Amino acid sequence: MQYKRILLKLSGEALMGDRSYGIDPKRLSEYAKEIKQVVEKGIEVAIVIGGGNIFRGVAGASNGMDRVQGDYMGMLATCINGLALQSAIETEGVKTRLLTAIKMEQVAEPFIKRRAVRHLEKGRVVIFGAGTGNPYFTTDTAAVLRAIEINADAILKGTRVDGIYNSDPEKNEDAIKFENITFKEVIDKGLKVMDMTAFTLSEENKLPITVFDMNTNGNLLKLISGENIGTVVKN
């Protein structure tokens, strides 16, 4: 598939690198370099990043915290990650904009669809923070929603695993990898790609999802260049 505009979904945990929490500057720098390579190919790049390396609302709720309060804390965590990623990408000489679903004018622009699209058209990397701005929705759902809003060609979900398997490849060395799979097959087989809200939203809008290993240098560029990296989920 030839990409013109992509939405890259990164997990907050990925930013931890080898740490147990927080942000690893080395991992951040690696991601920034990968993103720069893609931008230099003329691809418009939008990014949604999670906040699990700092705070996860569901975990807070399981420990007795109010779920809504916890989710808002998680949204703020995604903004911290967004600021860190913005800084790392701009260090590489690429212009960026951070747009958030919760207003915080001193640090980011509010999310406005037309403004986001205009930034992309001008070659800026757009980072979306604060999820959807609503509790009970994950950053996976935010990624699909933003991708639909900006008319992205696909969602590229960068993980530490090189695709979708029939069982956990980190626990089962005989796990079989899928090159391509349909949305229906993922549901029928009970495979975990995204949370169900995000997944069905993607299916309804015929937006393909590619799951790939973001932690292998050069993978993002190879994927953009048409190489068979990861697993593609489509209708």
Structure explained in plain terms:
This protein is of the alpha/beta class and 235 residues long. The chain has a single domain (5-234), classed as Acetylglutamate kinase-like (Carbamate kinase, 3-Layer(aba) Sandwich), CATH 3.40.1160.10. Helix content is 37%, strand content 20%. The chain is built from 8 helices and 11 strands. The protein has helices at residues 25-39, 57-62, 67-91, 113-121, 139-149, 183-189, 196-204, 219-224; strands at 5-10, 44-49, 96-100, 109-110, 125-129, 154-159, 164-165, 177-178, 180-182, 209-213, 231-234. Strands 4-3-5-2-1-6-10-11-9 form a 9-stranded mixed sheet, with helices on both faces. Helix 1 packs across helix 3 (67-91) and helix 5 runs parallel beside helix 7.
